[in-house]
Structure formats: C-alpha cells, structure tokens
Model the fold of this input.
Amino acid sequence: MNLEDIKGIGKTTIKYLNELGINNVDDLINYYPYRYEVIENSDIDNLNDKDKVVIGGIIENIPNIVHFNRKLNKMSFHLNTGNFIANITIFNRAFLKDKLNIGNQITVIGKYDKKHNSITASDIKFGLIEETLIEPIYHSSFKISSLKISKIIKSVLNHINQKDYIPDSIIKKYNFIDKNKAIQIIHNPQNKEELNKALKRLKYEELFVYMLKINHLKKSKNQENGLSRNVSFDQIQKVIENLPFELTVDQQKSVKDIYDDLISKNRMNRLLQGDVGSGKTIVSFLALYINYLSGYQGALMAPTEILASQHFINFKKLFPDINVILLTGKLKAKEKREVKSQIENGEANIIIGTHALISEDVKYNNLGLVITDEQHRFGVTQRGNLKNKGITPDILYMSATPIPRTYALTLYGDMDISSIRTMPNGRKPVKTYVKTNKEIKDVLYMMLDQIKAHHQIYVIAPLIEESDKIDLEDVYKLEEKMKKAFGKICNVGIMHGKMNNKEKEEIMNEFKQNKIQILISTTVIEVGVDVANATMIVIFDSYRFGLSALHQLRGRVGRNDLDSYCILISDKETKRLGVLTKTNDGFKVSEEDFKLRGGGDIFGVRQSGDMNFKLADIKNDYDMILKAKEDSETFIKSKESQSVKYNFIRNEIMPLANLD
Ligand code: ADP
Ligand code: MG
Done:
C-alpha cells in the first residue's frame, strides 16, 4: 500500500510526510510516537504552583485575542471549573475562537500559576474528559501536526502486516502479545496496561535483534584470522617523540593496545572511547602509521565532510611522505574516478573520507586497517560493510560518547575497549556554575564580561520536544530578553529545529564569522561545529537535560586556552546538576548520569547509529538488554534457529552485516 492510496490525504500532505522521512506506509507504521500525553483530570485541591493541569469547565466570557505579529497571537478567557474561575491563556490558537462560545464545555491542558489562579494552556479539548485519555505524540513539523499524523496512522492500522523477529519459543517464554497488535496499540492505546505490554514487546524485539547482530559479529570475529605485522615499536616511538606535544598516559596506553592488536595474528576489533578533545585523532593516525609501515592500505572514515577534510589536512602535515587521499561524496565525477583508481591500484596508502568510503563502489588494493571516527553515528550494518571491503582488515572504532564500562561491555560485546580518560595538558576545564532564575542578573553580567572581551556565547533554550508550542514562545521571549540586554552592543541570532537546513547553516556561518555574538539555539549545535571564540554557554531550564547531554553541550566551549564558562540555569534538581560543577570528566559524568537518572540521552542529546533504538532505553531497560543478550545466545545455538521458519531471521538480520 502506498501513501497515495490512503483515503483523504493529498499530494501536499504526502510531501509533508516525506519531509519527515515517511515515504511509504511501512515508514508510517514504524513512525512511533516519541511520548504519550496521559490526560486525566487533575486533583484540583492539591494543585501546586507550576503543576501540569488538566481541568474541565465552562467558558465564561468571549475570548479576547491579541495579535503580536503574523505568527504570534495570544487568546485569553475565563473558565468556570466548578471550584473556581481560572484565567486561561493560550498562544497561537486564535483560529479556535469561533468554537469557544460562552457556555461551551471544554478541557484545558496546561501549566498552573497558583498566585494568579491562571493557566497557560498548551492545548484545549472540546468537551469534558470522563476517563483517562492516552494520546500518542509524534515528532511533527510546522506543516503537519502530531494530531494529523496520528489520524493518518490510525487510518491504516487495520492493514498492517509487519514481520515478527522474535522466535516462537521466546514469545512463549515471555507471553508476548502479537507484534501487529502491539504496533496498533502503541499508535492507539486504550489504557496504560495494554500500552505497557505493547511497548515491552516492541522494545524487546529491538534489543533482541541488536544482540543477535552483536553475537554474530563476535562469533565471526573469533573465526577470522587477522593480519600479522612485523613493525618494531621503536619506529612508532620515534614519531611520538617528534610530536609537538607529549602524549597523555591514556593516549600512550591506547597506542600500545592498538600496536599489540596489529602485530598479533588475531584480528583487531577495538573501540577507542574518549571525550571530545581528548586526543583520539593522533592515536588513530599512529594506528594508520603502524599499518602503513607493515605495507597495508589504511582507511579512516569520518561522519562529515568537514571532519574528513580536517583529518586529511592534519595527517598530511604529520606525515608529508605518505600518499594520503581524500574521498568524499562532494568530489566531481572525474576526480572521484581518479581517486578510486589510485585506491584500486594501490598508489594511495591512506584513504580518508566520509560514507563514500563504503557507499561508493570502492575497490581497495590491500586494505589492512579500517578506522571509523564517531563510531556511534554509524550502524552495526555499516560496520559490517566496511569491514568486508578488504581482505580481513583490522578495525578500530572511535567514539566521543563515553559510556560506563559495564554498559559498554554489553552493548559492544564484540569489541575490546581502550579509553582516554584525561584531557591533554593545557586544556582548561570549563568552569561550570548552577544558577537559579532569580540569579539571572548575575548571569547577564557574566555574559556582559564575555561580550566586552569580544568573545561569543551560546544560549540554549529549553525546547526539547519540538512540537511543544509553549516552549517555542519561550525561545522568542528569550530572544527578546537577550536583545533588550545586549542588542545595543552586539548581534543576537536565533536557531531552532523548525528552520530548514539552509537557514540553520546560514545562521551557523554567521556565528562562525563572528557576525552574531550571542546565538540562541533550541536544538543541538551540530557535531563538529567548532567556534573557538565561543567561551560561554548558558543553558536555560537545564534540569530538562541529562548530565551527559549537558556535558556534550558544554564541550562546545573551552576549545582554546581562554577561560570558558558553562552556566546551568535551573530552579530544580540543582543538586544533580551540581555534578557538572565538580568534574569535566565525561566518564564520571556518564556514570553519575546512569546512577541518577535514565540513560535515554547517554549518547548525547540525540541517539544515533547503533544504539538508535526507537523505544528501548539503555539505562531503564538494562535488565531487558541482559535478557535479550542471554536469549539471543541461546537462540543462536538452538535447533530453532536452523529451522526453515527462521530463515528470515538469518536472511534479514545476520547478512545485514554481510559477514558470511
Ligand atoms: P578528539 O578526541 O575529540 O578527536 P582531537 O584528536 O581532535 O580530539 O584532539 C583535540 C586537540 O588536542 C587537537 O588540536 C590535538 O592536536 C590536541 N592534542 C591531542 N593530544 C594532545 C596532547 N597529548 N597534548 C596536547 N594537545 C593534544
Ligand atoms: Mg575526533
């Protein structure tokens, strides 16, 4: 079934869905809600200030509307709740006015302000709510709302027929519900119990499939013979001694780990993890050098063009005599052909590039080592693909998102791990402070100091859920505030998730060129963005982020020898946030994060690549991860996995990694 076949949706809607990455009905069905709104009437007598409130009542007067500009309007009216009369304010819903007549029954969802007895509403429902309502909330855009997406998905729910990846024996073991039923439920839950069952079912499947792949990779690793090399460490030591800096102890240890792997007959399959700026690149260069000395080709794959060309330039500087070439998707056809032929005939010793390294039909001559930077951005599948381009090359993965050892061992069960825990000397830790909203004046003065010193500042606004309309208002309000405070002495820019890529890129470039001094941003600032002159990051409502996410955001500053600052503004959870004031060590931060809170954002603000589970959460579902690991090990060995019925598991999951 195609999107065109769905009743009641036209070309425009299809275009909007496409923009969200939904290209067919399968995509649509697999477009899971990212959270649920559980709507049940609030207990009016026990409401505290700022509580979320759901309350029904009767409209008392004709709504009053104020238009600020074309996009921004505010509507207010009185609601008689039976207990009291509440002032209701809602932004950008002027279009509802005709439906809000005096005497109508409605339910208001919003935030309660006790002092003024008012509610800032995020949504209005017509009629009163009798029982609990669970509404799926989808990532949406300005063009198509979560509600619209929900309606479209509900209209196709009867037609779904998704393949089940959980073997019968396991379904029986856990008494799992049918997969298609589970998908129907997560898009249209009637109550919490059935929703929990459905979520459990689908989460387990994600984890089981992942563990099946990991087990398979591990098994094939043990079966493979690696390359052995004849290189003395003295040769490496010479390069190390001539570096412009001294390697940290952990860097030295990592180089040694890699050296030992490379000269041994066993195939290397190693993860090198360390915070942003901990100096993984030089370690990877030395690995490439060891491999080069032993006569093999080496490849280094980076997640973006910018990073790839940065690595290329730096490698050339360090090893001018080695023939290194750059392969990215951006090359013109002719250049690409030339580069590919150099790779194929072996003229190229080292190849640095992006995805093009695996996605183009590149034939390697004598590929002995493959390194992927920011490994968490690539999937297990891609890991497999790149591997098989050569003979049986050694593999090194690098990741800037440290995770505690226990979790790493489970999730990267097929790999050995080296960790760089200390930052290179000379890098100053980012001074971190927690401030409450009452202390905002202090913060503005601190910002002023930076602006006066001609430095730049990131301001992160609290918008996480991008469909949250109230919060977007907050961003604009924040812009107003910043302009009021600093507008006369510098330029304030704004960037948010609803802008398209081009708009975002433009703003980012202006910030890079110091045309903007204060950048207010709602979304993550892209990986690899490096503005050395930015010395301060101010994060509003920072309690809404996990510590690891905050630590990553903090990594945007402190990129030179200037003092830099991270200011966490929050009235809540100040103790938890305090962890960041005490340490700049990403490993410690992530361990604390795991102890204190769910690990949903352990991989930064966004999850991606391997661990891109749509539903499962590495911390909260850790017990389930362990079960899935055990079950997958048992399954692989079982007769059941050999039966015709499970052919599709073998055919569709295992060979994804292309290992046979
Ligand atoms: P990452 O681990 O994020 O990839 P990089 O390898 O890019 O970090 O290193 C960050 C910066 O630190 C680079 O400019 C690099 O040259 C420098 N650097 C790396 N190791 C050291 C060291 N031991 N002493 C001083 N500077 C170092
Ligand atoms: Mg790096």
Q: What stands out?
A: The radius of gyration is 27 Å. The chain has a mean pLDDT of 84. Residues 35 and 199 are 11 Å apart (CA to CA).
